[in-house]
Design goal:
Number of strands: 5
CATH topology: Rossmann fold
Strand content: 15-25%
Strand order of the largest sheet: 2-1-3-4-5
Largest sheet: 5 strands, parallel
Helix content: 25-40%
CATH superfamily: Response regulator
Number of domains: 1
Number of helices: 4
Order of helices and strands: EHEHEHEEH
Shape: globular
Distance between the termini: 32 Å
CATH architecture: 3-Layer(aba) Sandwich
Structural class: alpha/beta
Length: about 120
């Protein structure tokens, strides 16, 4: 499927985190979809154009972020992934970067914008 440039898929099992991040991104003009775990995220990718970016938690029930990253390696239409999780190693394999929870909103917005523009997230 074709990639949707200004859209973000937020994948997190914590509904409050998911809704807060989605709200902030929508307020900045991004189109946002959400999923509560990796399995749901992959199902959404099968039904919709690939988003321009996926924000992915690692520690989730049903299908973890680690398993989701593994599954994305086999997909031609896999979006770039920014891991947003507590206790993240510096470079999760298959991810373009990471943010630690609790999320600094300004840094989140800089990293998301950098993912779309290719500019460094300072």
């Amino acid at each position: 499927m074709q990639q949707n440039i200004r859209s973000v898929l937020v994948v997190d099992d914590d509904e409050d985190v998911r809704d807060s991040v989605a709200f902030v991104l929508r307020d900045e003009g991004y189109q946002v979809e959400t999923a509560g775990n990796g399995k749901e995220a992959l199902e959404r990718l099968d039904r919709m154009p690939a988003p321009g970016l996926m924000l992915l938690d690692l520690m989730m029930p049903v299908m973890s972020g680690w398993a989701t990253l593994d599954a994305l390696r086999d997909r031609r239409d896999a979006p770039p992934v920014l891991v947003v999780s507590a206790g993240v190693p510096p470079s999760p394999a298959g991810a373009m970067g990471y943010l630690r929870k609790p999320v600094d909103v300004d840094m989140l917005l800089r990293k998301v914008e950098a993912a779309f523009t290719g500019a460094p997230a300072v």
